[in-house]
From TrEMBL:
GO terms for biological process: P450-containing electron transport chain. One of its GO terms (molecular function) is electron transfer activity. Belongs to the adrenodoxin/putidaredoxin family. PROSITE patterns: 2FE2S_FER_2 (PS51085), ADX (PS00814). CDD domains: fer2. This is Ferredoxin VI.
Amino acid sequence: MAKITYIEHNGTEHVVDVANGLTVMEGARDNNIPGIEADCGGACACSTCHVYVDPAWVEKLPKADDMEVDMLDFAFEPDMATSRLTCQIKVTDALDGLVVKLPEKQI
């Protein structure tokens, strides 16, 4: 299990425990975190679970694959250094303390 902090665009923080094996998107969905729409349900077929990963965590995460990178082109104001799709980040104990910030909106 990992404790993950989701920070809304307005600064509101949500710290939740997310079970190993779920994705960061599923953790947001299961805990009613506003700002993660996840329209495709985690199939990496949209960009509505886009977040900005805290810079301290960027290098600790597995690299985005080509499909995720392509989908990020459709996200609202992507930052290629910190933007990720939460449906593509599997939760493990190693992610305990992960901090992600939500964009102003999802498109």
